[in-house]
Amino acid sequence: xxxxxxxxxxxxxxxxxxxxxxxxxxxxxxxxxxxxxxxxxxxxxxxxxxxxxxxxxxxxxxxxxxxxxxxxxxxxxxxxxxxxxxxxxxxx
Length: 92
What we know:
The protein is an all-alpha fold. It has one domain (2-82). It is 73% helix and 0% strand. Helix 1 packs parallel to helix 3 (63-82). The longest helix has 26 residues, at 31-56.
């Protein structure tokens, strides 16, 4: 089940990657504008992981719910990004 999830979730992200790369933008963001959110995300994720791993160690989980959560989180974030106001219009 884990292999299927890893493959499907990876393909899911690849499809979004292809879609986002197909969008035209006036100029690419600077490295600092890209690196800062990535660093904040990494630190936030590590703190969350460390605080939740011990708490969740002894609990039984529903596999169906566990496999659904990542898709919901990604869809919300990516779809908000795609339709965010102020996004540069494609050049004609």
